[in-house]
What does this fold into?
Amino acid sequence: MNRLLDWIRLAALVLAIAAGGAAGAAEVRTTHGPHALRATLELAQGKSLADGLVILVHGTMGHRDMEVMRLFRRLLVERGHSTLAINLSLAIDAREGMFDCALPSRHRAEDTSAEIDAWLEWAVRQGAGRLTVLGFSRGGQQAAWYAARQPHPRLARLILLAPIFAGDPAANYQTRFGAPLAPLLQRARTLEAQSRAGELLTGIGFLNCESTAASARSFLSYYDPAREAEPDATLPRLQVPTLVVAAGGDTIVRDLPRRVAAAVDGRRIRMVVIDGADHFFRDLYGEDAADAINTFLRL
It folds into this structure.
């Protein structure tokens, strides 16, 4: 049934564009495991899926309609690139909007890879041409981790927009929540060793939530991350052409150019720094970033 609805929505978009209307947008869905996944498909004027698709992955606990996602959807479509902005499920069926901190977190950082892959497979089934994944912030870190492991064979390009680093989790946690990380990690590891990793740690700071609950398994995946998941570790392993877009005034991901410089060879791995841009590429800095992305996509 989900595939039938997707086909109907896609057919309506194609008909609208064929009639000479403006670029179209529609919600599409696919499934992964027990969860329905939602996304917004926007076709550039006069383009079809066969002309290619850029799949956008949002940042921490975010969604397809957060400001930075809407910005780059618009900027890319204006430059002739159709987009698919996805909502990661975060272990919630048909999730929409920002993650609700009143809900317990049971998702893991590594779950993102399978969902990105599910959307690539969906695009292939719809007849999409060259496929690109663009990940923003944590979505950039996770997209790079996905592409460095076992990406879909049709993945052709990768764009990392201000990808984050775990850095020093203990120091970051203390700064963010005013509490030590070590006791929580110890509790989570004890539960994991007792085969109770699904049990919740309650009343804790977690990602964007000041006070929430998260399973021990979820907590460990974000606050005791695998070293190979960091961008400076994933970049040298990437086999697809990749563009890293750094924000020169980024106060969230500090010193990104230095951290990834060793992997940037100007051919397979390229980097552009948007001087003055903040982490979200507000004001006209988004235009500069989109111009660089457009050049990369047309290589």
